[in-house]
Amino acid sequence: MWEKKGLIFNVNGEFDWNKSHAQVPVVDVLTDSLRIYYATRNAAGQSNISYFEVDKMNPEKVLYIHNTTLLDFGKFGAFDDCGVMPTSIININNRKFLYYIGWTTRGTVPYQNAIGLAISEDGGKTFQKYSEGPIITINHREPYFSGTAYVMQDSGVFKMWYLSCVKWIKKDDAIEPLYNIKYAESLNAIDWLQTGKVAIDLAENEGGLASASVLKIGNRYHMWYGVRGIFDYRKFKDQSYKIGYAISNDGNDWIRKDKEVGITISENSWDSEMISYPCVIQNGNDLIMFYNGNGFGRSGIGYAVISSSKIVDI
């Protein structure tokens, strides 16, 4: 079982850009600290990206809080003209590649997402967008949208597990997307081959799989992700996001083991209604999971710890 350590960070609304939410934690492991990129929302509910840093050995100790955002919204009509959220970070040749989700609105459905890339030349303190357009987006195999992603370099290949919308459905006045987790590969971390390969598919009565976080421990891949119901997941606890878990021997074909995830919502706390958007890192002999609780990050970011040996035994 994961040992919950509690809430460590939330925004205080001090600035116009951080009126609510600390959502989708993305962790960069530094020498002595952990830098956690996150999405916060302005007064209009649009997401921005900033970061804070915590002690590597004691994540409850916040060392630094950045006081501005990292990326501007895209130009009018671009895939990210209504908001940006971080989703994964990797280090390549002294540069940091930050993959982010761009938000824009639609006329027939509420929104559309795609995945963009921003690159830092100064150790992750500032970023410049690689391009005005996304690097993962709709195509003839994936006609709706792409969202949260996790990128890993493994055996000379860059691998990505990402949210992919398979359709929109309507019930009364509610319009909701259904999305699973797909897999893509790249040789340069920029140009990706989207084959439509499904890594984790929706089970019966599931409406969304989000925020894959993948570790390779030994020769086995481990994935944590969010799982929600189809409708009313914003209202009812039994339909809200929980954290799922799967294992794989090759990173392509996965076996779901959600019942063995070892973490669920609390009885009475900041994460008593939902838990999701896990970001799992290895820290010595332990694994640390940073995640969101109630309100899709409205209650902030907390963390939990487990010995890596307990994961290997699953």
Question: What's the topology here?
Answer:
Elements: E1 3-9, E2 20-29, E3 33-41, E4 47-55, E5 62-65, E6 83-92, E7 95-105, E8 111-120, E9 128-129, E10 146-154, E11 157-171, E12 174-186, E13 192-200, E14 208-217, E15 220-228, E16 242-248, E17 254-256, E18 276-283, E19 286-292, E20 301-307, H1 308-312
Antiparallel strand pairs: 1-20, 2-3, 3-4, 4-5, 6-7, 7-8, 8-9, 10-11, 11-12, 12-13, 14-15, 15-16, 16-17, 18-19, 19-20
Summarize the structure.
The protein has 314 residues and is an all-beta fold. The chain has one helix at residues 308-312, and strands at 3-9, 20-29, 33-41, 47-55, 62-65, 83-92, 95-105, 111-120, 128-129, 146-154, 157-171, 174-186, 192-200, 208-217, 220-228, 242-248, 254-256, 276-283, 286-292, 301-307.
Written account of the structure:
This protein has one helix and 20 strands. The protein has one helix at residues 308-312; strands spanning 3-9, 20-29, 33-41, 47-55, 62-65, 83-92, 95-105, 111-120, 128-129, 146-154, 157-171, 174-186, 192-200, 208-217, 220-228, 242-248, 254-256, 276-283, 286-292, 301-307. The strands form five sheets. Strands 1-20-19-18 form a four-stranded antiparallel beta sheet. A four-stranded antiparallel beta sheet has the order 2-3-4-5, with no helix packed on it. Strands 6-7-8-9 form a four-stranded antiparallel beta sheet, with no helix packed on it. The N and C termini lie close together (11 Å). The protein has 314 residues and is mostly beta strands. The chain is globular.
